[in-house]
Amino acid sequence: MTPLFASYNCHMATPTQLTANRVNAQSSTGPRSAEGKAASSRNSLKLGLTAKSLIIAGEDPAELDQLTAKYMDEFEPADVIEEQLVHTLVRAVWMQNRCDRIEAAYLNARVAALPEGTEHPLGVAVIEDASHGDVLTKIFRRRQAAQREWTRSLETVDKMQSERYQRETEQRVALNPAPPRQDRVRFSAPPQAPGVPPQLTPEQQVNLALLL
Hints:
Shape: elongated
Number of helices: 8
Distance between the termini: 66 Å
Order of helices and strands: HHHHHHHH
Radius of gyration: 31 Å
Strand content: under 5%
Structural class: mainly alpha
């Protein structure tokens, strides 16, 4: 996580809490209008173009733009901090995918370098790697670091959007308080003399018929 967000107080959330936060954030008053969605689309393009600095040989910039647009549409960041968090999520996913490609390319290269006819070439390549350089472990650690970065950023943006949704809800309630609840009026029969059957009013007879 970058220093900008290192001071943000973010404790671990359970999967249930994360799901609830995502639902709350989706209910927030984000860019739901046509103008707001258009602005969100422009932000997606801008962020995607900026993220092209992440591209190395063999990677497709259009694929990164598509991934960025999906994350921007999912989170709809409301300010620059949320936007940067979304950028961090995209970068973490992109790095994990890169680690997968590097691992596959590395193993293919090691297998290709083995003498022809080597039995169990993939296993031999892994054993040789563990004895000389242990590159696979380094790739694994880099992938795990990206996964941790993604998880921390997700928890932070979820927490921020959930709190924003709560503030907006409280503001709406303060501006438009709900009318007082009116309890259902119950009809009561007028007092009757002892031994005389109670007489029902026409309204009571209608309500009694409905109940039956």
